[in-house]
Automatic annotation (TrEMBL):
Enzyme class, broadest EC rank: hydrolase
Name of the protein described by the UniProt record: CRISPR-associated endonuclease Cas1
Cofactors required: Mg(2+); Mn(2+)
GO BP terms: defense response to virus; maintenance of CRISPR repeat elements
Subunit annotation: Homodimer, forms a heterotetramer with a Cas2 homodimer.
Keywords of the record: Antiviral defense, DNA-binding, Endonuclease, Hydrolase, Magnesium, Manganese, Metal-binding, Nuclease
Amino acid sequence: MRQLLNTLYITRPNAYLSLNGENIVIKEDNQTIGRYPLHNIESIVLFSNLGMSPQLMGKCVDNHISICFLTPNGRFRARVVGRSYGNVLLRKKQYKVSMDDAECVKISINFILGKIYNQKWLIERYIREYPLRIQGELLKNISYQLTEYMNCVKTCTELDSLRGFEGKAQVCYFQGFNELILNQKKEFVFNGRNKRPPQDPVNSLLSFAYTLLSNDIASALETVGLDSYVGFMHQDRPGRISLALDLIEELRAPIADRFVLSLINRQQVKFEDFIINDNGAVLIKDEARKKILSEWQKRKQEKLKHPFLDEKIPWGLVPYAQSMLLARYLRGDLNEYPPFFWK
């Protein structure tokens, strides 16, 4: 298993990155505000309008450090990666499988089984751990319905029907999400998923966490030699990391959703950490974003026993582990892709 290195997040909108020897230098208004050695960095995520020097970008490409450009509000712009890792035969197999509907359904079923199972398990944990603080019957009914959707998913033979059950399961899951908010219930109310733009603090946090997770997954896929832009369930679109969006499905609940609930329930974010634009968009303030990114990095260092590999790894390596297992399946080393079933 590879080492978990750091992701460097640049949240200052007017920061500019340059290269000095083997170090990243961060400047703002021509003043140096930070310096980081390249050998400790795995990827760079910029919420910056100014970007970085061509010299630094070239060095990152040579050192397999991925670069993700986001708007200051966290909207995806572009990713830059270096030379392709791994064997060209792996990517050729990926492209071949992506054009085979039956194979796409086979892999995608496991993505969605992992997604619904982990949503159900998150709800079951709250039922067990907080019986006096939640509407137990509501969550039990949702858990039961999610089990039914899992059974339906197992019998799917077409991507459209699979997407239909995935969508229904997601609506069902989010019907109980507000019950999982145990503290600050007046300030953080969830009435359903909305985005582009998010219209409440909970959806703003979810969108931000999903952006961070999808970038981590795209980097992991590129690391094992897969093309993050060619998926099996999400349709190909220019600039869309379709395979990362496939793989994120099973990791949303145990990584991103759980992280957001933790931020709210531990009162690590407050209602004052958000601003409301004239168009109704609810955005995270700059200082709060820094705090959230710090907590995200800490969460990635926490360890768990991977359910398939049966070894302890940091949460931050779960996207890499699943990418590696997907590559092994495509190479023919595994009979099927093993989804991440959180325990």
